[in-house]
Amino acid sequence: MSETPTNTLQYRFDGPEDAPVLILGPSLGTTWHMWDRQIPELVRQWRVFRFDLPGHGGAPAHPADSVAELSARLLATLDAVGVQRFGYAGCALGGAIGMELALRHPERTASLALVATSPRFGTADEFRQRGVIVRTNGLDPIARTSPDRWFTGGFAAAQPAITEWAVQMVRTTDPGCYIAACEALAGFDVRSELGRIGVPTLVLVGSDDQVTGPAEARTLVAGIPDARLAVVPGASHLVPVEQPAAVTDLLVRHFSSAWQPAIDSTTGQMAIVAAPAKPVLAAAPQAAPIAEIAPPAAPAQPPGRPDAYETGLKIRREVLGDAHVDRALAQSDDFSGDFQEFITRYAWGEIWDRPGLDRRARSCVTLTALVAGGHLEELAFHTRAALRNGLTPDEIKEVLLQAAVYCGVPAANSAFRVAQQVVREETTPAE
Predict the structure, then answer these.
(1) 160: CB partners within 8 A, 6+ apart
(2) Which of 35, 65, 86, 217 reaches 20 to 30 Å from 398, CA-CA?
(3) DSSP state letters, 320-379
(4) Structure pTM?
(5) With bands split at pLDDT 50, 70 and 90, how would you rate the model's confidence at 29?
(6) Whether pLDDT at 294 is above 60
(7) Residue 198 DSSP symbol
(8) Which of 17, 350, 33, 20 is nearest to 168 (CA)?
(9) Cα 60 vs. chain centroid, distance in angstroms?
(10) How many Å apart are CA 369 and CA 402, to the nearest integer?
(11) pLDDT per residue as tens digits for the range 363-382
(12) Which residues does 309 contact at the CB level (< 8 Å), separation at least 6?
């Protein structure tokens, strides 16, 4: 176990101290205990390092809102305990951290297993919407629906104790850290970089995963040069929990045979040789994994323009949402295209990117200005933006009350009607 400074993560070791290190990364809303059923077999060959995400499993609540920041904290933790080179297996958000490590720190990553993960998780809007719901209603709505996302119906019905464990695991997570992790997933997209992952990679997915399923897994296999695919039947998103024997078997076989030597021997870092392969747990017949060979890597997408337009487009999407921005850009033509470029470059790339005010403050100013001008259509999507930027419904109410004093009661009356509808739509949990 560990004491945890702000720039590191809560961790634990299992297994012999002189064995090569294998890291297991958790999914959003889980703790290192999601890997408990893999540990007895893995520690026969490896020193297993597990960590908790910020605010998960009782870890200190120091939010990290990007996968890069989570990866940096993990590396700082490993530096503190003297681990330089390692194998890495991660589930969902834990898998994203693994991809980040393999891309930015290939000299430290010996081999990779990506479990129930994706180079991009749905749309940014989906995760920012989840953050709005948690900020308004707490984690209980997310906790109650987690088993539906994580397990097949048959498993959840047959394993009520594990189902309740999953609910409580989410319910006891720090809400602010959960929201920050949603933001990290919203901003994660390495589709165009997969060809640069240079370590042997196992892509593992449950056949019934509705969150990051076989389609996302095949995207990873198509993009990573040295990757193979294993599909585990009868499993959903938390496949290490639902089909532990099959997952353990696949991990042992992969890390026993695919431990890549260090990239630069001049650093003094020696390649770690894994112990010889030996008999492993046999999966139940219904859980026998299916392996497929990866097709050739997909070509990388060309980079965008490195100027204020690209910065503005990124901020505009983060604040207003992909759907709104896509709709606005799709509707532009020769007549309105220059205006769309103007507001993207100058309003979003220059003003919204200035460091003098944070996005919460800019949302307060924007809402007030829109009330004063009577721009109710713009007020609707900027109310959604304010929720994404971290304002609560009560804070938006206070902004509109303040505007009523200085902009007039009739203007505020119309604004309350618009904002009330938006708040109801955005903060009502899905059934």
Answers:
(1) none
(2) 65
(3) H-HHHHHHHHHT--TTTHHHHHHIIIIIIIIITT-TTS-HHHHHHHHHHHHHHHT-HHHH
(4) 0.77
(5) very high
(6) no
(7) -
(8) 33
(9) 19
(10) 12
(11) 999 999 999 999 999 999 99
(12) 341, 344, 345, 349
Helix (H, G, I), strand (E, B) or coil at 13: strand
Beta-carbon-side half-sphere exposure of residue 372 (alpha carbons within 13 Å):
12
CA distances in angstroms from 103 to 136, 190, 257, 426, listed in the order given? 36, 9, 21, 35
The whole-angstrom separation of Cα 332 and Cα 271 is 55
Q: What span, in angstroms and rounded, lies between the C-alpha atoms of 178 and 390?
A: 13
pLDDT at 3 (0 to 100): 56
> The tokens 């060809």 sit on which residue?
195
Residues 71-98: tens digit of each pLDDT: 999 999 999 999 999 999 999 999 999 9
CB atoms within 10 A of CB 325: 19
Q: Does residue 285 surpass a pLDDT of 50?
A: no
Q: Which helix (H) or strand (E) element contains residue 14?
A: strand 11-14
At 5, the pLDDT band (50, 70, 90 cuts) reads low
- pLDDT > 80? residue 106: yes
Portion of the chain with pLDDT greater than 90, in percent = 80
- 202 close to 254: Cβ distance less than 8 angstroms: yes
d(CA 78, CA 85): 9
Q: Is 382 exposed, middle or buried (0-12, 13-18, 19+ CB in 10 A)?
A: buried
CA distance 88 to 85: 10
Question: Which letter, b or e, does each residue of 345-374 get, where b requires 16 or more Cβ atoms within 10 Å of its Cβ?
Answer: beebbeebeeeeeebeebbbebbbebbeee
| Helix (H), strand (E), coil (C) string for 104-158 | HCCCCEEEEEEECCCCECCCHHHHHHHHHHHHHHCCHHHHHHHHHHHCCHHHHHH
End-to-end CA distance of the chain: 38
Residue 310: C-alpha distances to residues 133, 152, 319, 357 (Å): 29, 41, 14, 20
CA 218 to chain centre: 18
pLDDT of residue 291 exceeding 70:
no
* DSSP state for residue 189 in the 8-state scheme: B
pLDDT at 284 over 90: no
pLDDT at 295 over 60: no
* Residue closest to 178 by CA, chosen among 322, 49, 27, 316: 27
Q: How many CA atoms lie within 13 A of 336 on its CB side?
A: 7
